[in-house]
C-alpha cells in the first residue's frame, strides 16, 4: 500500500477550558499528550489489523489492495462476496491509516 504521502502544515488551535485554577498548563499538556499517545497506539493497532486482513486477500488473489480497489471500483472484478469483504477491509485500513497520520502529527 505504497501511496505517496504529501506533507502539509496545518496550524490548528485548540482551546482547553478547565473549571479550576489549580491546574498548571504543563499538567494539562501532559494529560493531553498522554491521551493522544494512547489514541495513536490504538489507531496503529486497528490499522495493522486491517493491513493483515488486506495482506490475506492480496495473497489469495495475487494483486495489491490498491490494484484491487481500482479494479473493483471499475466493475472489472464482479460481485463476489470476497470482493465486498476486501473492499470493506481496504476502506477500514485507509481510515485508520489517515487517523494514524493525523495523530502522529500532533505536537503539544
Please give a structural write-up:
The protein has 108 residues and is mostly helical. It has one domain. It is built from three helices and no strands. α1 runs antiparallel to α3 and α2 packs across α3. The longest helix has 37 residues. The model has no long low-confidence stretch (mean pLDDT 91).
SSE order and pairing:
Blueprint: H1 25-61, H2 65-73, H3 81-104
Overall pLDDT metric: 91
Radius of gyration: 19 Å
What pattern of helices and strands is seen along the backbone? HHH
Morphology: elongated
The number of helices is 3
- Ranges where pLDDT stays below 50 over 5 or more residues in a row are none
Please outline what is shown here:
With 108 residues, the chain is mostly helical.
Task: Describe the structure using short key phrases.
mainly alpha, 108 residues
